[in-house]
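User: Hey, my collaborator sent me this sequence without any context and asked if I could get a structure. I don't really work with proteins. Can you help?
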Amino acid sequence: MRGFHGSLVALGVVTLALYGCDRGLGPGVAASAGDFQIEIEGVAQILAPVSELPNDVGVAKAALEFWIDYTLLAWVVNDDGALADLEVSSIVDQELSRQRVLQLREQVIQVDTTITDEQLRAAFDEARPGEEIRARHILLELTADAPPQQRDSVRALAAEIRERAAAGEDFAGLAREYSDDSGSAIQGGDLGFFGRGAMVPPFEEAAFALAPGEVSDVVESLFGLHVILADERRGPTLEDIADDYRVQLQEEREMVAESMYLAEIEGPANIQIGEDAIALVRRITASPGDRLSRSEGSRLLATWETGELPAEEYREFVMGQPPATRQQISVAQDAQLESIVHDLTRDRILLQEVEKAGIESTEEQTETVTADVLAQYVLLAAYLGLDSLEVEEGSNLVERVGRESIALMGRLVSNQADIIPLGPLSLPLRDRYEPRVGEEAAEAIVARIAELRSGGSGSLDLSQPPTPAPTATPPEPAPSPEAVP
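Assistant: No problem. I've predicted the 3D structure and written it out in structure-token form, which is a compact way to encode the shape of the chain:
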């Protein structure tokens, strides 16, 4: 089970700003979702008892994000007609587009995936999939900017060590005496078993070219000069993995054919990434929950001969990614972000090819996907214990939803429930009910937690987190996107 102790901290890293900060919230109110509200004191009382949670702004913002999503999820699943009226066409369209692209792929990418036993054996003997080697090495450190005299001296020593090892002198003893790799030197240079891709390319290429007992020539890598001894090799036989390896080769053929097709359609498209696209991508990644204004959402990240990629489409993409992926994107280099934008642009070009091919979604497919999307809300609510909420006499659904969302936050904090990010399913909820977060709410939560943990004024009750009461009226739908300037 993974609760706040893991997921909330991870999300806090990337949730730098949630929704548009709002000065209009009442005193002490941290956030609102429709007409539901949660107070700064309530959030602090929930988080403060869990000493494992760092008291920082990122965690506080992530907690508010989950409260908003889960409150709105509980509302639409339990309020009669709210789920059926939820506008989920953006999610449905994405799934239908994916299905249409798959249809196009089946039509235009023709590849022979028949692999004979002889071809399978030849490919296996060449690639040796799953093979590992156990090797020892002696490293002599040598930087790229070392002066020529030093390089000559180190190379001469490496050549001497190599000749001594090849002549049969104890390799382990040479490693202990000469190797600059302190970690392996004390083990006689032993690196243990490793597979392909585990070492830097020059080292790996030389090591896997050796037979057991053979010593390599002097090999240079970014770490310096190496002398390598192969101890033993191990790996599966073809009989062990024949079926899986055949499937792997077939998939590789399909990937090559698909890459060739993509290159054919991308070349003439002349994709151009906008000058300020990467800066905008970084800002959207930092706060994907922010609704973009009409002008921002229509700003172009990329163009090509027959189309454009607006910023809103990138926002929808990043909102659909899991927290770990969002975190990776948030720290990516410019070239990596350009690659993401390029891939999204390529997807749009593929959709144009779909249209050219006359591939359309049927009414039945649309209805099926829509039903599946709406069913996901119900399934998530059931998993989180937010479905089938009964209203007690003298109460109403708004109050019940408010209590249950707070109770869920308490279960998450105490690791009694899993955190389930809504991902793209949260977008329709936010677009309809337009959540707001106080401008300095997270900072105020952090300050209050510090007071509570230090035993200051109004110490927390560790036995039961409070239940901030929601307002007494149900949330009204937010204005449609067309009404937002």
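In plain terms: Residues 1-21, 459-485 have pLDDT under 50 and may be disordered. You can pass these tokens on to your collaborator as they are.
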